[in-house]
Amino acid sequence: MGQNGLSQKDQELEELGQVVMEESGGRKIQLLSIIGEVEGHENASGSCKTTKYDHVLPKLAQIEDDAQIEGLLVLLNTSGGDVDAGLAIAEMIASLSIPTVSLVLGGSHSIGVPLAVASDYSFIVPTGTMMIHPVRMSGMVIGTSRTYEYFEMIQDRILSFVAGHADIAYDQLKRLMHNTKMLTRDLGTVLVGEQAVKEGLIDEVGGIREALDKLYEMMDQGKGKRKRTRL
Question: Which residues are catalytic?
Answer without folding.
Answer: 110, 133
